[in-house]
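FAQ: What does a ligand-bound record look like?

Like this one, built around guanosine-5'-monophosphate:
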Amino acid sequence: MASDTIFGRMLRGEIPCDEVYSDEKCLAFRDIQPQAPVHVLVIPRKALESLDAAVAEDAELLGHLLLVAAKVARQQGLTDFRTVINSGAKAGQTVFHLHVHVIGGRLLTWPPG
Ligand code: 5GP
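The answer part, i.e. the structure of the complex:
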């Protein structure tokens, strides 16, 4: 379950995180293994395992996460940035609590691996 993940423990304050933004719906913090000078994760407080597990009633929350991702990017001084949501193990998801990666501060190439 999403609430049992390391991110769930951060949301409950059981383990610390390097927080950059917080509101009633989400939390944003620095990735422990950054892939760029700025690498922040935006997670919903709601225990959602993945984007694939989201339903119609999550539409507003998903939009909020993207708006927060852009806000965090601006706060971190980025004008160009990438947002990534890995959904499922074969797509690279390793923590099964939905999260939006916000990555920037260097040249980002395409396609990703
Ligand atoms: P995923 O591979 O699921 O898309 O992304 C999970 C991300 O969570 C990875 O970039 C990984 O570095 C990050 N991560 C895993 N454990 C922790 C942790 O304990 N603290 C923080 N801040 N990030 C973590």
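Follow-up question: can I read anything off the structure? Yes, for example: The longest helix spans residues 59-75.
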